[in-house]
Write a structure and sequence with these properties.
Keywords: Annexin, Calcium, Calcium/phospholipid-binding, Repeat. The chain is built from 20 helices and no strands. It is an all-alpha fold and 316 residues long. The chain starts with 12 loop residues before the first helix and ends in a 5-residue tail after the last helix.
């Protein structure tokens, strides 16, 4: 369920484009106008505004926003103005090759996307950056983590609800027999199961594994695996079992302790705002006993704060 809230009186895309252009005039940008317009427009409306802006002013709105805005607000607004596939492609490239190398962001995007979405990502990635996603993964990840990511983007997985009960039991036995091997050893069985099986299969596997051997699959991974390989396995499993709980956990880690992981905070709020952010909010409150808007308010400031709170549908 989306947190997106339409304004009470919807203006035309032309009006929005004209207001934005006025906000760019003079000394500095009127960021409040940018936030009040763009944070309250859905994807279709944002596309229309961009088209109107180019028609009226012969300029690219995203380029103008990049020139006028700064800091975290700039990053959040520019990501908001992209399509879902463009967001993934841009974030993956920055995470894998940018100055702020963020292997967890790259892992999370890859390991929470369907085969169809990954196919679209690869189709856009190569012409955009002149290199294949496989190449960047190969150059900037290593060992079993690299093997898992490359397998995950190469395989077409079934996304439906049906499962093969016999195969589920076979996988549970294989995991119990082999486990997650010591560092430097072959992880082929785990990689095969976690990259080839559907979400429904993994949900059943976690249940059957517990019933057959009295162990939690998640705890087995956390105990035996390490580093980025462990993070990838847990991401695949947790997202399959409960996407909203997965994102609530990611947001908690991004806002817990000293400092805020603004890149993660922006990525999750922007990419989930028009999908399931309300359910993520509910899970966050249930699990951590604090409203997500309250946490965002305490961790951010200024127009950046106002923009994120608008995505949350909050006037906190």
């Amino acid at each position: 369920m989306s947190t997106f809230t339409k304004p009470s009186m919807q203006k035309s895309s032309r009006d929005d484009a004209e207001q934005l252009n006025r906000a760019f005039k003079g000394l500095g940008c009127d960021a409040a106008v940018v936030v009040n317009i763009l944070a309250l427009r859905n994807a279709s409306q944002r596309d229309s505004i961009q088209q109107e802006y180019e028609t009226l002013f012969s300029d690219d709105l995203k380029k103008q926003l990049a020139h006028e805005l700064h800091g975290h607000l700039k990053k959040a607004v520019l990501l908001w103005m992209k399509s879902p596939i463009e967001r993934d492609v841009t974030t993956l490239r920055q995470a894998l090759t940018g100055p702020l190398f963020d292997v967890k962001a790259a892992t999370e995007i890859i390991c929470t996307r369907t085969s169809s979405q990954i196919r679209q990502i690869k189709q856009v990635y190569t012409p955009t950056f002149g290199t294949r996603l496989e190449y960047d993964i190969g150059c900037h990840t290593s060992d079993d983590h690299k093997k898992l990511l490359l397998a995950f983007i190469a395989i077409t997985r079934y996304d439906g609800p049906e499962i093969d009960s016999v195969l589920v039991e076979d996988d549970a036995k294989a995991i119990n027999k082999i486990g997650v091997k010591k560092s430097g050893m072959d992880e082929s069985t785990f990689i095969q199961i976690f990259t080839e099986r559907s979400s429904a299969h993994l949900i059943a596997l976690a249940s059957v594994y517990h019933k057959m051997f009295g162990k939690e699959l998640r705890k087995t991974i956390k105990r035996e695996a390490s580093g980025n390989f462990k993070y990838a396995l847990l991401t695949i499993l947790q997202y399959a079992v409960d996407p909203t709980k997965h994102y609530a956990t990611v947001l908690r880690k991004a806002t817990k302790g000293l400092g805020t992981d603004d890149s993660t905070l922006i990525r999750i709020l922007v990419t989930r705002a028009e999908i399931d952010l309300q359910r993520i909010e509910e899970e966050f409150l249930k699990k951590y006993k604090r409203p997500l808007p309250e946490v965002v308010h305490s961790e951010t400031s200024g127009h950046y704060r106002a923009f994120l709170l608008s995505l949350l549908g909050s006037k906190y």
